[in-house]
Fold this sequence. Notes:
Blueprint: E1 2-4, E2 7-14, E3 29-36, E4 49-59, E5 68-72, E6 78-85, E7 91-101
Antiparallel strand pairs: 1-2, 2-7, 3-6, 4-7, 5-6
Amino acid sequence: MALHGNFQYGISITPNLPWGGLNGGRGERSATFHIDFAQGKTPFSHVPNVFLTLSGLDASKNTNLRIRLTAKNVTTSGFDLVISTWDDTELFEVSGFWTAALARSFD
């Protein structure tokens, strides 16, 4: 994780997702991981925008690939990363990057 003025970024890796969560079963399934921004003084004066990107994936070759990354419960100190899948997709590991930044006003 790094802190640069009005934005922060980091890497999130979810190795060995719990069996029956995203790698077993059918239908809509999700796993939630809490991400804390840099410790110490809160770097954001307002709730930042959070951007997520997928950088790595370990999934079954026997089913279609379906994945959704969502940032929920965003505050000035962190957010919940929600990884979702549906139908019969099997996910074993997901990795990605996140960036949190304050919106800039050009008034």
